[in-house]
Amino acid sequence: MKFYPVDRFFSDAFDDMFDRPFFTGNSSHVMRTDISEKDGYYLLDMELPGVKKEDIHMDLENGYLTVSASRNSNNEEKDQKGNVIRQERYAGTFSRSFYVGDEVTEQDIKASFDNGELKVTFPKEVKTIPE
Hints:
This is Hsp20/alpha crystallin family protein. By secondary structure, this protein is mainly β. It has helices spanning about 5-20, 20-25; strands at about 35, 40-45, 55-60, 65-80, 85-100, 110-115, 115-125.
């Protein structure tokens, strides 16, 4: 008969449980983002599955672009008589901030959202017109 250390068993079980977004609040699975450098601009490619376009907000303040999104879902299962046998709800808001530069303005930032994917571009350098 082989014995396993009890603390290892509980450690693994609880590590898995606390890795879930409910406990972590800022999970690595939320708002996964690829940042790439293109010719003259940067591209943020962000995964937002289950989020509607109207639930995405972007704010630019002190050179930081903050992208926030909220998601609400309600899953309800009923039996043949119409009685609820299971109902789960989820509501959450999450955000990420990126330094884009003090010279970048809202007019410099372009964004598109399609099929759960948010793409945001902003220039590497902002050209100023001398007065």
